[in-house]
UniProtKB/TrEMBL annotation:
<dbReference type="Pfam" id="PF00005">
    <property type="entry name" value="ABC_tran"/>
</dbReference>
<dbReference type="InterPro" id="IPR050763">
    <property type="entry name" value="ABC_transporter_ATP-binding"/>
</dbReference>
<dbReference type="InterPro" id="IPR017871">
    <property type="entry name" value="ABC_transporter-like_CS"/>
</dbReference>
<dbReference type="InterPro" id="IPR003593">
    <property type="entry name" value="AAA+_ATPase"/>
</dbReference>
<dbReference type="InterPro" id="IPR003439">
    <property type="entry name" value="ABC_transporter-like_ATP-bd"/>
</dbReference>
<feature type="domain" description="ABC transporter">
    <location>
        <begin position="1"/>
        <end position="231"/>
    </location>
</feature>
<keyword id="KW-0547">Nucleotide-binding</keyword>
<dbReference type="InterPro" id="IPR027417">
    <property type="entry name" value="P-loop_NTPase"/>
</dbReference>
<keyword id="KW-0813">Transport</keyword>
<dbReference type="GO" id="GO:0005524">
    <property type="term" value="F:ATP binding"/>
</dbReference>
<keyword id="KW-0046">Antibiotic resistance</keyword>
<protein>
    <submittedName>
        <fullName>ATP-binding cassette domain-containing protein</fullName>
    </submittedName>
</protein>
<comment type="similarity">
    <text>Belongs to the ABC transporter superfamily.</text>
</comment>
<keyword id="KW-0067">ATP-binding</keyword>
Amino acid sequence: MQARGLTKHFGAVEAVRGIDLDVSRGEVFGFLGPNGAGKSSAMRMIACVSPRSAGTLQVLGLDPDVDGPAIRARIGVVPQLDNLDAELSVRQNLEIYARYFGIPRVRAREKAAELLEFAQLTDRANSPVEPLSGGMKRRLTIARSLVNEPELLLLDEPTTGLDPQARHLLWDRLYRLKQRGVTQLITTHYMDEAEQLCDRLVVMDGGLIVAEGAPADLIARYSTREVVELRFAPGAPRPGAAELDGVAERVEELPDRLLLYAADGEAALGAVHRAGVRPQASLVRRSSLEDVFLRLTGRTLVE
């Protein structure tokens, strides 16, 4: 998949402001960004359900403006909200969806059985959809997106609202798809999910790409190896960033704590204690993609 100057307008609103993208075959590629960053608009253009306003876009080597039906026949889409048919059984949701792609009835039944096993739903094949847990419904939605054996899979926040066990099971299934060579484009608000799944990703903000690279490379580029969190009791005296100058590479002041970004967190914490600072609690942790995300897009809530 390749895009150059990809742009999307909604009247006077410029949701995507001329971005460049290159996604290789078999790659898991992530879109991160706050609400309104342009992630979903970009994904909808790639899925051939929303025309681009400007720029060039090739999906599977084809132009969505000309070859939309041919592209849609070769991709799978997992929407943010499950849109399963509640009046059908688990198996019927797969078999009937397969028929939309012109898959013969016998092959549709075979494919449904394969996907039920892949999604670990074989024992629920004849169950109605409505009583299924959120994790089961999500696995069924992903299974349904695979009935046409897509070369490219688009997943919009695939694990939102799921418990940790269901999330990890879905991660395992997505990893198996990667092993099969299926290209995946993922939007997510979970930074740990992006670190686990994505080979490369972009961080979008205000319709622009503000950073691009592998998760580990982005952490190395925009953060430090470790972060020290210092928490203070309500109303207790606490130092400002200027008072800790030289203790860490960067100090960030938050309402409930101080964050010290340093190559060696334990050494930074020792320097804090030697300076006479006594936090109520302290924590040394590995720097994460969330630190990068918040540095690039800010901590202000976007509605």
